[in-house]
């Protein structure tokens, strides 16, 4: 069994820090929530790297919100529910859609400069959206622009204290509520933080897979910490693989935005043939799970390591203006996207599942909240609609802060200690162990799955559980323990769900089974794995 805490400690021997609100993570969810919470509270924001380093920074496409007279909330709701394949929570979707436009206006007020045409917000369309409703910044650098604006506000805010390069090891709990966290400083020293409210905004777990669009920091820390603390996690089997990540010798799996297809790019196999019409009537604008599986099938059918994304038929200057980051990045690898087809393949991109929350961002553990990719609000269902993630972070960040108004003060607590008599050292290097985990996940828990392979994956992952009895000191060791925790959760959920739905596809159960499986898979450390019905519209 996964232990309650990753390290032995006695808080009586550690320095103490007190905060009204502790926020863990510095993407859009953490930054925005910190700014809103700091209007009348002292906020401590902890990030394991620098303030600007997060998944949000790499978000290209944009943020989805109904801002055009030609669009309507009903269309956005419908698009989200369809993409979510029957597992969206309708009330959460309504909150996202109706409150998202106000969140966009708040981002603008806080300094985000979205692109405009003739004085109006410039909108684009992405896969599975029925209307043009995606706001973007600097063409294809939306996430970076949002993080830039918000991080400047955070850095200058007198009520927000920022700890860079600090690793949160575990959440501290007492009598069924979260009272703070155990934190490791850059020099390896540890302290404990108590907070009236703890908000996890730590992002997803893209590093579960060898090929991912996520940065190195995406190691599932928040989900793993919350699970160890006893909070429910939900729908972990649903991992979104972005269909179009750059696949080129010497290049990272750089994201080629959904918006490229939204602006007219087409997919071709290595023989130059378009193929999406064979898989879906929406062709290149089908939901991500359908496009990703179609690409994998074409790669297998043609025995190729990639397919091509072709936007060369669009005017050269328009491509450069609309996608400057993609253009410059590809050019650095001798690919001119105005003239060359872009070699691409699917890569792990986003976790639809995460820490189960209600409409106010509350987890099942008192005083613990979650926001952004680390959470399972019910918005994304089995397959996230493109560009809904940034909207979700803003909408539910605001809702969390509203809930803080009614949160009673933290009562006194006894000093916590934990001793598991850890004496073992790790048998092999963390780099070797993480690579082994990633290869297991890619081979057996990827775009296509089956029961036999999932059982092999589970056995291989369980074979790495000696890390939980070892003495962990470095950030990398703690991250690997978190990745292994998440890998076990994802694989367990995927093995239980004997159907194909959204981003979860099983060769041995190739169709959706609403009669049995239109429900969430919930996992808790003490209670194990259970099923929970979806609320009807």
UniProtKB/TrEMBL annotation:
<feature type="domain" description="FAD-dependent oxidoreductase 2 FAD-binding">
    <location>
        <begin position="20"/>
        <end position="390"/>
    </location>
</feature>
<dbReference type="Pfam" id="PF02910">
    <property type="entry name" value="Succ_DH_flav_C"/>
</dbReference>
<comment type="function">
    <text>Catalyzes the oxidation of L-aspartate to iminoaspartate.</text>
</comment>
<keyword id="KW-0560">Oxidoreductase</keyword>
<dbReference type="InterPro" id="IPR005288">
    <property type="entry name" value="NadB"/>
</dbReference>
<protein>
    <recommendedName>
        <fullName>L-aspartate oxidase</fullName>
        <ecNumber>1.4.3.16</ecNumber>
    </recommendedName>
</protein>
<dbReference type="GO" id="GO:0033765">
    <property type="term" value="F:steroid dehydrogenase activity, acting on the CH-CH group of donors"/>
</dbReference>
<comment type="similarity">
    <text>Belongs to the FAD-dependent oxidoreductase 2 family. NadB subfamily.</text>
</comment>
<keyword id="KW-0662">Pyridine nucleotide biosynthesis</keyword>
<dbReference type="InterPro" id="IPR036188">
    <property type="entry name" value="FAD/NAD-bd_sf"/>
</dbReference>
<keyword id="KW-0274">FAD</keyword>
<comment type="pathway">
    <text>Cofactor biosynthesis; NAD(+) biosynthesis; iminoaspartate from L-aspartate (oxidase route): step 1/1.</text>
</comment>
<dbReference type="GO" id="GO:0008734">
    <property type="term" value="F:L-aspartate oxidase activity"/>
</dbReference>
<dbReference type="InterPro" id="IPR003953">
    <property type="entry name" value="FAD-dep_OxRdtase_2_FAD-bd"/>
</dbReference>
<dbReference type="GO" id="GO:0034628">
    <property type="term" value="P:'de novo' NAD+ biosynthetic process from L-aspartate"/>
</dbReference>
<dbReference type="InterPro" id="IPR027477">
    <property type="entry name" value="Succ_DH/fumarate_Rdtase_cat_sf"/>
</dbReference>
<dbReference type="InterPro" id="IPR037099">
    <property type="entry name" value="Fum_R/Succ_DH_flav-like_C_sf"/>
</dbReference>
<feature type="domain" description="Fumarate reductase/succinate dehydrogenase flavoprotein-like C-terminal">
    <location>
        <begin position="436"/>
        <end position="523"/>
    </location>
</feature>
<keyword id="KW-0285">Flavoprotein</keyword>
<dbReference type="GO" id="GO:0005737">
    <property type="term" value="C:cytoplasm"/>
</dbReference>
<feature type="active site" description="Proton acceptor">
    <location>
        <position position="288"/>
    </location>
</feature>
<dbReference type="Pfam" id="PF00890">
    <property type="entry name" value="FAD_binding_2"/>
</dbReference>
<dbReference type="InterPro" id="IPR015939">
    <property type="entry name" value="Fum_Rdtase/Succ_DH_flav-like_C"/>
</dbReference>
């Amino acid at each position: 069994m996964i232990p309650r805490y990753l390290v032995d400690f006695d808080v009586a021997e550690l320095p103490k820090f007190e905060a009204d609100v502790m926020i863990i993570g510095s993407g859009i969810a953490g930054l925005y929530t910190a700014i809103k919470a700091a209007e009348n509270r002292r906020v401590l924001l902890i990030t394991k790297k620098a303030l600007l380093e997060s998944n949000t920074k790499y978000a290209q496409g944009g943020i989805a919100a109904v801002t055009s007279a030609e669009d309507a909330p009903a269309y956005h709701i419908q698009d989200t529910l369809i993409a979510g394949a029957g597992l969206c929570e309708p009330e959460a979707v309504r909150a996202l859609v109706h409150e998202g436009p106000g969140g966009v206006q708040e981002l603008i007020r806080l300094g985000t400069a979205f692109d405009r045409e003739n004085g109006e917000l410039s909108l684009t369309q992405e896969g599975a959206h029925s209307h043009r409703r995606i706001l973007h910044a600097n063409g294809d650098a939306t996430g970076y622009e949002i993080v830039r604006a918000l991080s400047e506000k955070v850095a200058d805010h007198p009520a927000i204290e920022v700890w860079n390069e600090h690793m949160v090891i575990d959440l501290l709990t007492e009598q069924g509520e979260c009272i703070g966290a155990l934190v490791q400083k850059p020099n390896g020293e540890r302290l404990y933080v108590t907070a009236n409210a703890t908000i996890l905004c730590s992002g997803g777990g893209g590093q579960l897979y060898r090929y991912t669009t996520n940065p190195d920091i995406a190691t599932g820390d928040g989900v793993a910490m919350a699970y160890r603390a006893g909070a429910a996690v939900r729908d972990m089997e649903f991992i979104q693989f972005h269909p179009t990540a750059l696949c080129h010798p010497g290049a990272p799996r750089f994201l080629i935005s959904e918006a490229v297809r939204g602006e007219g790019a087409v997919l071709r196999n290595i023989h130059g043939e378009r193929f999406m019409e064979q898989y879906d009537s929406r062709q290149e604008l089908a939901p991500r799970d359908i496009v990703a599986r179609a690409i994998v099938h074409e790669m297998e059918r043609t025995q190729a390591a990639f397919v091509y994304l072709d936007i060369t038929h669009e005017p050269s200057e328009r491509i450069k203006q609309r996608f400057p980051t993609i253009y410059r990045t590809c050019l650095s690898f001798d690919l001119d996207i105005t003239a060359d087809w872009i070699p691409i393949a699917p890569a792990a991109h986003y976790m639809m599942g995460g820490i189960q929350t209600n409409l106010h961002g509350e987890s099942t553990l008192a005083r613990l909240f979650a926001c952004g990719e680390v959470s399972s609000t019910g918005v994304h269902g089995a397959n996230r609609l493109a560009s809904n993630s940034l909207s979700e972070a803003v909408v539910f960040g605001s809702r969390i802060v509203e809930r803080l108004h009614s949160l009673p003060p933290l009562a006194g607590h006894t000093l916590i200690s934990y001793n598991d008599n850890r004496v073992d050292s790790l048998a092999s290097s963390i780099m070797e162990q993480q690579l082994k985990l990633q290869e297991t996940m890619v081979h057996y828990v990827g775009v296509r799955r089956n029961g036999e392979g999932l059982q092999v994956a589970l056995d291989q992952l369980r074979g790495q559980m000696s890390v939980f009895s070892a003495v962990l000191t470095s950030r990398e060791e703690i991250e690997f323990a978190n990745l292994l925790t998440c890998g076990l959760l994802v694989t367990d959920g995927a093995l239980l769900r004997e159907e194909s739905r959204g981003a979860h596809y099983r060769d041995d159960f190739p169709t959706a089974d609403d009669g049995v499986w239109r429900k969430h898979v919930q996992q808790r450390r003490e209670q194990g794995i259970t099923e929970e019905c979806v609320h009807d519209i």
